[in-house]
Fold this protein.
Amino acid sequence: MATVAATTAHAAGLRASTLGIAKRGLLKYLRTPQLVVLGTIQGAMFLLIFRYVFGGAIGADGGLDYVDFLVPGFITTGILFSGMGAAAGVAEDLEQGFVDRLRSLPIPRSAVLAGRALADTAVLVWGLLVTTAIGFAVGFRVHGSVADVLAAFALLVVLGFAFEWLFITLGLFAGSAQAAQGLALMVFPLTFVSSAYVPVQSMPGWLQAFAEHQPITVMVDAVRVLTQGPAAAALLGHGAGFYVVRSLLWAAGIVAVFAPLAVARYRRG
């Protein structure tokens, strides 16, 4: 009986601790207006550059307008741009001693990282909503069903949660916010060597092999087919199910690799 009671108390502590730490992360973000405003302006600025500066020189075959080709890729890769802030935030908490204070509390160790991942995912949802709204403002249109669009958004949230573990791990290993930003920047080339902004077929042959088989391309193509329907499926060669399943497998693999690494690093600290 005592064992059952202890187990129940521990489970409640895990849930309450995770939600408490997540709430703290959200409040810290909301109480820093420059982070909210800067993130919104930065996303809008890059989307406008790709839409109106590069869009005239870049085309997408298969009956898709470039804006309809671009926006799903831009929204998906925005997950990585948001992640740089997550990595820096984790490193900053380490520098300022917040993580040390949490270690001294009688709470489950996993709650600290899970709460951080939950808070950063909630912030990511806000960024996705803003970027999507800007996409519609610059001419993006959906050609899939409402269910497919909702599935695309849910998939983006799942992918964002998975990548949060990558950036949390980078923040724990970095040691400082500046170093964390530098490490996070190393992930960004994946966004350009992918189908996010240009068709993979436009790249040199030796580069296509890598671009076609890396996670960002698969994830972008999943969102693109879900939002653009048959035209995107014809352009890419497969239906939504093909890319969605592979995206979820990539997401599961990322969590399986980086969540244990983050927990191990946290415990060693």
Observations:
- Residues 1-12 have pLDDT under 50 and may be disordered.
- DSSP finds twelve helices and no strands in the chain.
- The radius of gyration is 20 Å.
- The CA atoms of residues 174 and 180 lie 5 Å apart.
